[in-house]
Design a protein that fits this description.
about 550 residues; ten-stranded mixed beta sheet; 17 helices; 3 domains
Length: about 550
């Protein structure tokens, strides 16, 4: 391929005797990669299930090369959020940053979400992920990818780093800064980037990178770690950015990165930095530096959570398409109230209360009535209703007014006059066994493609799975740990005595189908109401069933084109 002459002269100086091999690598085809979403599926199970030509990416535990003809972006598993398509080298930064469940994590330049989704998966629903991008349009794409992945504890913001730094001084345990750069490492993947490059671009980018990384350092907690990365080769945007920061901030130090054969050491005395070159590894160009803030080891994440992120902010630019809801401002929130939830995390009934929304009992009861059929563990103190929109907010709740954000936590859906309409984001955050009524289809079923295109589909009896199907008696009692047999009429509201007897006393797994509230008889002509539509057991979205026909409720913006 044709590359700018100024660029090739720079690379000759940088690589010396390796330059010929580097140049030859651009004549080889690019590599295609996908990263498995470990929130939903293990790599081993994905290998068993996926119909692709997969080869492990050696330096990333949950990543694979695939062949271009596999077209994984057209497969239903892509729409179920089982993986993210990403260039293999670009997977490295989020893989290297040692995120633990319960951490407070910031992805400062997060769009379109390739690294943020991996950080969110590492959190396993615990702690907080703040995913930020300065571009409003790119932040919307970021939000959708986070929701497709089923990440429920994200605060998605659209702010400049300086504004965030004022709100979050020394707050985050882990920070990822994948800085905007001149993109030299992506020339093979994106020839247009080579055409747009000029000799001044690295210097222009370096000025912006210095500002971004300084603000990020201000937000890093003592004992925390920050990963700086770019997809470019220039030392101005890489080693010199790190050297300048270390000279200004004696509280920061450069840390070792786990080594993989094929990595290259950094230049100009910063050997702990890592470079990835396309002639040494099966990927494009990348740079990584891991920094730690001195001041002692952080307390255990789950035990030492700090408070202080925005529950509501200024949303004047946050017209969010994915959930269909506009996030409200802090003035529209009311003090906390409690929702009625059993100790095991399953919604116990409609006698409780949810916070927010002006305390309207009708809205609260409609939401809780729907949530009786959801066994996803929730903390009642984090449930909010604002202007008819229901949210499950992350565990930090101190207000940070003035921040522009697109989403705070998991958007559950909309409370309408006499009903609740669950959101697409809730469907993707659930597991099959966490909702009472499930329509599960094989990946090769033509109805899956029809559903993904927004069409109505016919439903057969064998496709339907009732309440938490597959659970044994002990599992059902686990969902309602305080209930005795006499209490099961409340848990299985809508079931007759004969159903309870059949489901809970003499039944094996098959008898459990159709036992939960609203599941009705296990015949497609009798079953009705909201169903969680799944492919091979993994949720795709919602549908409303009546008379053996499923009315498609897949959000228009999430459909297959």
């Amino acid at each position: 391929m044709q590359m700018p002459q100024d660029f090739t002269e720079r690379m000759k100086t940088l690589l010396k005797g390796e330059y010929a091999d580097f140049l030859a690598s651009y004549d080889r085809p690019r590599n295609f990669g996908l990263r498995v979403n470990t929130l939903k599926i293990s790599p081993r199970e994905f290998e068993r299930l996926a119909p692709f030509h997969l080869t492990k990416v050696p330096w990333v535990d949950n990543a694979y090369f695939y062949e271009e003809q596999d077209m994984p972006a057209r497969h239903p598993f892509y729409y179920a959020g089982l993986y993210y398509l990403q260039e293999p080298s670009a997977m490295t930064p989020a893989s290297v940053l040692p995120v633990r469940p319960g951490d407070r994590v910031l992805d400062l330049c997060a769009a379109p979400g390739g690294k943020a989704t991996e950080l969110g998966a590492k959190l396993q629903g615990k702690g907080l992920l703040v995913a930020n991008d300065i571009s409003a349009s790119r932040a919307k794409a970021l939000l959708k990818n986070i929701e497709v992945f089923g990440i429920s504890n994200a605060f998605v913001t659209n702010e400049v780093p300086a504004k965030l730094a004022k709100q979050f001084p020394e707050f985050f345990d882990r920070i990822l800064v994948d800085a905007p750069c001149s993109g030299e490492g992506m020339f093979r993947k994106d020839p247009a980037a080579a055409k747009a490059w000029d000799a001044e671009k690295p210097l222009v980018c370096a000025k912006q990178q210095r500002e971004i990384i300084r603000r990020a350092a201000d937000m890093l907690a003592p004992g925390g770690q920050m990963l700086y990365s770019t997809c470019t080769f220039s030392v101005e945007e890489n080693e010199r950015i790190i050297a300048g920061l270390l000279a200004e901030r004696p509280d920061l130090e450069l840390l070792d990165i786990p080594w993989y054969e094929g990595f290259s050491h950094g230049y100009e005395g910063l050997e702990k930095c890592v470079r990835i070159f396309p002639h040494r590894m099966s990927g494009e160009g990348h740079f990584l530096a891991l920094l730690g803030k001195k001041g002692g080891e952080l307390p255990a994440a789950a035990a030492g959570l700090r408070r202080g992120f925005g529950r509501q902010g200024n949303d004047r630019r946050a017209n969010v398409p994915a959930g269909g809801a506009r996030v409200r401002t802090a003035k529209e929130s009311t003090p906390d109230r409690r929702a009625n939830m059993s100790a095991g995390g399953a919604w116990a009934g409609k006698g409780g209360s949810a916070r927010g929304g002006g305390g309207q009992n009708g809205e609260r009861e409609i939401l809780l009535d729907f949530l009786k059929d959801v066994s996803m563990p929730m903390d009642e103190n984090r449930l909010e209703i604002r202007k008819g929109q229901a949210y499950y907010v992350p565990e930090f709740s101190d207000e940070k007014a003035g921040l522009v954000f697109l989403r705070n936590g998991l958007y559950l859906g909309e409370v309408k006059k006499d009903r609740f309409e669950p959101s697409q984001s809730l469907a993707l955050a659930l597991k099959k066994e966490q909702y009472a009524q499930v329509l599960d289809l094989p990946a090769g079923d033509v109805r899956v493609q029809k559903y993904l295109k927004g069409e109505t589909i016919d439903v057969e009896e064998r496709d339907l799975h009732g309440a938490f199907s597959g659970a044994g008696d002990e599992d059902l009692r686990g969902a309602f740990p305080s209930a005795g047999d006499e209490d099961l009429h409340g848990a299985f509201s809508g079931a007759g005595d004969e159903d309870l007897h059949g489901a809970h006393v003499s039944a094996g797994e098959q008898k459990l189908r159709g036992a939960f509230s609203g599941a009705g008889k296990n015949r497609s002509g009798d079953a009705k109401g909201w169903h969680l539509v799944c492919v091979e057991g993994y949720p795709l979205g919602w549908g409303k069933l009546a008379g053996g026909v499923l009315k498609n409720k897949l959000h228009a913006g999430w459909r297959m084109q």
